[in-house]
Amino acid sequence: MPRFFYGNFDFEHQLAGETYGTSTSAAASLTSSLACCWLGLTEAGDQIYLPAALPREFTEQLVTSGFPPVEFTSEWPTAKAARSLTFVPWGWSNEVAKLAEAKGFAIETGVLSAAYTVNARSFSFQLEMDWGLALPGSCRVVSLESLEQVLRAFSDSDDSSWVLKANFSMSARERMCGRGSKLSEPIRGWAAKRLTQGQPLFLEPWVERISEAGIQLEIPAAGEPTLFGLTVLLNDTRGQYRGSRINVDDSTLQQWQPAIDVAQRVARAVQQTGYTGPVGIDAMQYRDAEGTMRLRPLQDLNARYTMGRLALGFQRFLTADQVASWLHFPWKESYGIDFSNWLRCVTQQLPSDVSVRPTSPDRIEGQPPRLASLFLIAENATDLLTSEAALHDAHNNLNQTTG
């Protein structure tokens, strides 16, 4: 059955809004800005909801590049048509379930409470504690007083760095970073606002990140969860997602096997809540204070689609010997150049056997998307890494040039 993809990419904000009773409209524009990210999963006949105009040249270019013909639509189907489509959201919240039901789609409401439970940091934190996987010093706090008390014991010097995370957080958002044993006024205000709404916060030591991986699984209603694959996460210095390295060799898989083992155990725990569907688990290799490399296998748990899951969908366009990455770049009107034109210039500097396929348009409703993306294909790992570095360097230079 053809699918109707709906990108409620502000999913965690929707869950937080259900908890806090606050508006979730601030991130609504993400539905349009990131809609093209669904291309990793789509097949011919699928529809992607994008309530804005796309350049015709972009959709024509997608077909020329080998992507299946899909329909970008700003209109909801009729109730009759909706019954012949499978509704696929980024994540299941009460808000998106009510919307889908109102539009005539058949939905399973049983997954809603489970999705809320599993996506709360409380769930993964408890698993970390029960299984002895948490970073040393990590703790859950429910009041400013307990936070200040923990910080006094947690920080042995003014140089000790830490991060404070909300119960619903994502991609380096809904968190505050601090140092030492005292709360700054901005962090105090941020923490107080969330604590007074009855939500816990989670304190962790800041560690030196070496590398990260995204482990993707599918949770069925019955039977063993399925491992969908692993990608190497490419994040910026703030920890925000900037891409996925799609093909990983046997050595990389062996390196992350302990995290995969934990992920499969986590998937079984998730299944017991009644949740079914996609799950993404982020794992991190880090260096401790003594310089020893350690593994945190359950850094983040997302019971929804993830960029890593979408990235793995691009594997079907590769030959057996090719390697690839899916890269994302923040894009601004102030750059004074369209993404495709910039890409044509930069591509001339890449190895000759490397190919680049844009997966986002230059304009959405006449404005550049906040995040531009491309599918990077190489014949060997060396050329792939070289090309990744060249593209990110060129983007950094663009940022510096335009201020």
Automatic annotation (TrEMBL):
It comes from Gimesia chilikensis. This is ATP-grasp domain-containing protein. It comes from the Bacteria.
